[in-house]
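re: ur question from yesterday

yeah so i grabbed the chain u mentioned. its 529 aa long if i counted rite. heres the sequnce exactly as i have it in my notes:
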Amino acid sequence: MKQRPATLLATLTLLAAALAGQVQAATPKDTVVMGKDITNILTLDPAETFEVTGGEVINNLYTRLFTYDPQDFSKLEGGVASDWKVSADGKQFSIGIRENLRFQSGNPIRAEDAAFSLRRVTQLGLTPSFILEQYGWTPQNVAQKVRVENGRLVLELNKRWAPTLVLNTLTSGVASIVDEKLAREHEQDGDLGHAWLKTHAAGSGAFSLKQWKAGDVVALDAFDGYYRGTPAIKRVILRHIPEPSAQRLLLEKGDIDIARDLRPEQVKALAGNPEVKLHEEHKVSELYLALNLSNPALAKPKVREALRWLIDYDNISEHLLAGQWFTHQTFIPKGVLGALDETPYKLNVQKARELLKEAGYADGFNITLDAANLFPWLQVSQTIQQSFASAGVKVDLRVVDVNQAMGRYRSRQYDAMFFYWSHDYNDPHSSAGFLIPNPDDSDASTLKAAAWRTHWKFPQPELVDQAAEEPDTQRRIGLYQDLQRKVLADSPYIFLLQQNEQTALRKNLSGFVSGPAFDTPVYSGLKKD
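ran it thru and got these C-alpha cells back, copy pasting raw so excuse formatting
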C-alpha cells in the first residue's frame, strides 16, 4: 500500500511510541488506536484461534466463507461465497466463489483455497475444529467430504442439518479463507503452514498484519483490494493497556481513540466529557450459575427453583453493573435465532423459603460457590452469596483464577460455579448442543460438556437433534423456544445476565462496529472527522 511520506512518517512515529510504551497525544488522522487488554492473543492461525482478542483480529485479517451485514447482523450474506445451493436431501451444499477476489499476497481466491481452509481445520484438529467435525468430517475423510467440483466448493455432511445452522457455522473463525499457496510456501513438516500462521497472516480481509508483539501491540494496515472497498482508516493499532483506569485517562488525553475495557466507574467518569462518546451493543455473552447435582440438596428440583427466587437480577444489572449487563434468564441470548425474552424470576425470599421447606431444607444448607477473580464474576457472586443467606443458604465463596475455575468445572469438583458463556458461532445450536446433551454421565464419557459437568440428564435429549435438523426456520424457532422454557423451569443452570458492551470513543471517530460475538468486531468502517 502506498502512502504519502508525511503520513507514513507520522504513522511510524506513533507505532514506535506504542512499541516503546511512550505517550503520543493526538493520533494521526488516518490511524485509529485502541486501548485494550490483548494478553489473550495466543495465535493468529484461524484454525487455532479461540480467544477473544485473537478472534477479533482474524475477523479483520481474513474474509470468511459467509458473514453478516455489519450494519445488521441478522442478515447473513456471502463473504468469499457468492451463492449456495442445498441438495434435496439436505446433506450437500454447493457454494460458488466470488469472482476477481484476491488475497493480500496478490494470489487469486479460488474454490480450492476454500476447500484447503476447511480441510486444514479438521486435519490440524485444534480447539475450534469441533465446529466442523460435527458434520462427520475427520482427518481421514475430509478430502472427500470437502472438495471442488466444476469450480464450486462442495460440502458433504453426515446427515441432514438445518441449512441455517450450516451457514451460521461457516461464519465462524474456522471458516476464514486462507491463501493456500502462501501457507504451503511456509509449510514445515506437513503442518499446513500452522507454525508460520501463528504469527503471520494469509488472508484477504480489510487489513493486513503489520506487526504483532505479544502483550504489547498489534498493528494492522488497510488492504486496498478488500472486496467491500478500501477502509478509510489506513492503520489500526491495538495497544496493550490492561487497566481500565489507564484506558480512560489515555482516551481523555487523546492518546488513544477507543477504550475497550471500561468498567461502570470509568464510564460514569467520562459521562460529562464533551470530547468522548459512548457506544453500546448487545453481545451474546451470558453469566450463569451451574449447579452440581451430585450435591444432595442441589439434586432436588424445588431447591433449584428456590435458588432462582433468591437472586436480585434487576438490582445487579441496574445498580451493581450499571447497565453493562442486563437481565436475561434463558440460555439463548437476545439477538440469536429463537431467543426467548422471558424473565419470570425475581427476588422473592418468602417464596424461596417455602420451596426450601417443601424440599426438606427449612433451615437452609451449606454449599461452596466458585468464582473467578474477574470483573464482574466476583462482584456478582458476592451479591448472590448475600441474597442466598437471606433464606438460610450459606455460601462459602471460593475465589480462584479463571484457569482454576475452569479446571474445577471440567472435573466436576464444585457445588455451584459462577461462569461465563458465549456462542462459538451465531446459532442457537451452539448453546443447546453444549448445555443439554449428556449421553454418558460416567467419568469415561467422551462428551464432557455442561450437562456432564453438572451430572444432569435432560429427559428429552432428542429435542436437541430435532431442532438442529429442522429445515423450516419458523418451526426451528419454535423448537428452541420450547427447549428454553423447559431449561428455564428445571435445570442445573440459572442464567442471570447478558452483556451490553460499552465502548468509549473520541467524538471525532465513527463507524465502530463490535457485533454480537467475541470475534465479530469490524474495523473497516472506522472514520475520523
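noticed a couple things. The longest helix spans residues 473-489. also Confidence is low (pLDDT under 50) at residues 1-24.
anyway ttyl
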